[in-house]
Write a structure and sequence with these properties.
Length: about 375
């Protein structure tokens, strides 16, 4: 074989071997890329930013159901713990989507967190995200369920509350008709009829008042209000009721505090707190009313020596028609709306109301309001 042919054969052999090496390198690179994809926990571009900005609870899971990305909401609701979904029902939904490839949406009821007692009502959507991942989105509907329960309770309670005085008025009217020739009986029934009519009028008035307080424009024309004057008026309104039970209304020193708001509404709120304290206090006890100021916050506190409130009832006392002692409240003519009105008056003035209580040792209800300042005036729409 001549040298030229031999050189050509070596050249061809080199090209073949070189091509084979290139192919092997490319195959190895592809396998390495595939292996990297299997172990890679990165989610598709943009999903991280979406989950970080998501108000709902969201999570992305890889093929092994490891949570590779979760939104703040998913962590706050206790849906994700240690990079895994906490609740079996959510895992089962993810597995179904993997099997069928079809998106899934269901409403579920879950406990909050792995050891949570609180209940969450969630609308959950699960769908594939590319070929490897699954995305879960959960919207919290717990508050809507709570509001629906409150609405049902409100309808049931108001029906019951109105039925009692209306029924009494009807019966007393019949009794008056049958006792027309007995003056003493007529006077007794008429007195009782007046009491029930007043109770019915009070419930109706408080319902109207509460409805107005819940309106967006409840505080239409806020002005500068002297808190000492509010305290003085509210005490005068309750003086007769306190004296009839031998209860002392002890007032602290003048505060000279001022807030922006509606004096009449603030008087109603404080009146309700004092009346409530009288209602639940033993005869010959003492009720303290004091005003303090700290860091721009005015606090009006009413402290009694009454029966107190159990821990489990403390968060509910500001609900409409809720009573810690229904029998006692109805016997004294309470409507169950007084503390709800207090709460909404405080909120409309940019403040809140808080309660401290210990069963058997009395309670302290405190209305907290922002002190009058240019910033407060601007937030409440006061014309300067």
């Amino acid at each position: 074989m001549d040298p030229a042919t031999l050189e050509l054969l070596w050249l061809v052999s080199g090209i073949v071997v070189g091509s084979a090496i290139v192919v092997l390198i490319m195959l190895a690179a592809r396998r390495g890329q595939q292996a990297a994809e299997v172990v890679n926990t990165a989610v598709p571009d943009g999903v991280d930013q979406v989950l970080d900005a998501l108000e709902s609870a969201g999570a992305v899971l890889d093929p092994s159901n490891t949570v590779v990305k979760a939104s703040p909401g998913a962590l706050a609701f206790g849906l994700v713990w240690n990079q895994a979904l906490v609740h079996p029902v959510l895992i089962e939904m993810v597995d179904r989507v993997r099997r069928t490839g079809e998106p899934l949406a269901e409403e579920v009821q879950l406990s909050r967190g792995p050891m949570g007692d609180a209940i969450l009502y969630l609308w959950v959507r699960v769908a594939r995200l590319g070929s490897r991942y699954v995305m879960l989105i959960a919207e919290d509907r717990t508050e809507s369920y709570r509001l629906d329960d409150v609405r049902k309770d409100f309808v049931a309670n108001i029906s019951h509350e109105l039925k009692t005085p209306i029924g009494a008025v009807s019966l007393l009217a019949e009794a008056l008709a049958s006792a027309s020739d007995e003056p003493e009986q007529v006077r007794r029934f008429a007195k009782r009829l007046t009491v029930e009519a007043d109770r019915l009028a009070r419930i109706t008035q408080e319902l109207i008042q509460l409805s107005r307080l819940q309106a967006a424009d409840a505080l239409t024309m806020p002005t500068l209000v002297d808190i000492d004057a509010v305290v003085s008026i509210a005490i005068d309104q309750n003086r007769v009721a306190a004296d009839s039970h031998g209860i002392q209304l002890a007032v602290g020193k003048k505060s000279h505090a001022e807030v922006y708001g509606d004096e009449a509404l603030l008087v109603v709120a404080l009146h309700n707190l004092i009346a409530n304290a009288i209602q639940y206090s033993p005869d010959s006890s003492r009720i303290g009313i004091g005003v303090t100021e700290s860091d721009g916050i005015i606090e009006i506190a009413v402290t009694d020596q009454g029966v107190g409130i159990a821990d489990e009832e403390r968060d509910r006392v500001f609900e409409r028609f809720y009573r810690s002692d229904p029998a006692r409240s109805r016997n004294t003519g309470g409507s169950g709306l007084g503390l709800a009105i207090v709460k909404h008056v405080a909120q409309n003035h940019g403040g809140d109301v808080r309660v401290w209580s210990q069963p058997g040792n009395g309670s302290t209800f405190t209305i907290r309001l922002p002190e009058a300042s240019p910033a407060t005036a601007a937030s409440l729409g006061v014309q300067q």
